[in-house]
Amino acid sequence: MSDAYRPLYARFGAVLQRNEPLARYTVARLGGPADVLLTVSEIADLVDAITLAHQHGIPWRVLGGGANVLAADAGFRGLVIVNHAKLERYETDQVIAASGMHLSTLARHCMSRGLSGLEWAVSVPGTLGGAVINNAGAHGGDMSGSLRWIELLCLNDQPHMVVWSVSQMDYAYRHSALKGTHGRYVVLMATLKVTPGHDPAELNATADGFVAHRKQTQPPGASLGSIFKNPPGDHAGRLIEAAGLKGFAIGGVQISSVHANFFINNRQGTASDYRALIDHARETVLKRFGVTLELEIEYLGDW
Ligand SMILES: Cc1cc2nc3c(=O)[nH]c(=O)nc-3n(C[C@H](O)[C@H](O)[C@H](O)COP(=O)(O)OP(=O)(O)OC[C@H]3O[C@@H](n4cnc5c(N)ncnc54)[C@H](O)[C@@H]3O)c2cc1C
User: Fold this and answer.
1) Which residues share a beta bridge with 36?
2) SS3 assignment, position 267
3) Which of 146, 157, 276, 290 is deepest in the core (most CB within 10 A)?
4) Is the pTM above the cut of 0.85?
5) Is 99 considered catalytic here?
6) Which fold has domain 3-83?
7) What percent of the chain has pLDDT over 70?
8) What are the residue boundaries of the structural domains of the chain, listed by start?
């Protein structure tokens, strides 16, 4: 292990894990080892780890729930920080939360207090931080409609904190100004709009309806949710299905027979299988329909 890691070991010691398989931290259950992996449960630890990595030239990447990343079989050369930082503060018409909170948990906590606004988020896997980056959305709601402010650690030069309003996020469908800017910004906290005075039972009933609908329309198993964004006026799943690819498999990864934009790892698959299937689906749809599908997920690691 290079000397660059010494300050990290001095600060975090034995909780740093060497050669830790990323498959344990991704929803698709894929990904080889990170050189070093750290799980944090406090924002202060997240800031310290990234600041030290940045100052000592160690490549790093934050992972939330691993629900939107395909991690390479070769893993990641550097430090992966798994963000489990939790903190939630409720004010009259907003909730302020740490980026490592599970979005669905935060949504349920709001509902139980009679705060409406995050019901859409109740079945979206992953963390608040990942949702802010990807403008996660479901059932007619999304982060762009819920977010007020975020607190960011900015690493363009010397690490410093900045506060951005939602208008600075350049939000569009599954896009933000921060998506793909790896190594430059970390979402620490987010402030979300809610409206008080609702009946928790009614909010929970709405959310339960969303969960039930998802169970009916989406397959279970180790996937990354929707692989491609829906092209304007169409659905990626419809195009993949129309190209005859429902059920098509490469190695241990199969295009779902329930929803063709979901690719399922049958637990024998590799990240290379997964990526080959993505490339195949994209090429086939382009050849058949002249439509270039854009990825919703992101790649992580040494490809
Ligand atoms: C079964 C299934 C269903 C899904 N359904 C939906 C859906 O309905 N709607 C939807 O929008 N998405 C859906 N997704 C995708 C996924 O849930 C969202 O994209 C989610 O917001 C990802 O959050 P995460 O914490 O898992 O992010 P990760 O996958 O951990 O990370 C995503 C990206 O954000 C970066 N990142 C994570 N946290 C931070 C942070 N704090 N600061 C800076 N960068 C960070 C990572 O480096 C990575 O580049 C689904 C996924 C699955 C597996």
Assistant:
1) 18, 79
2) coil
3) 146
4) yes
5) no
6) 3.30.43
7) 100
8) 3-83, 88-217, 236-300
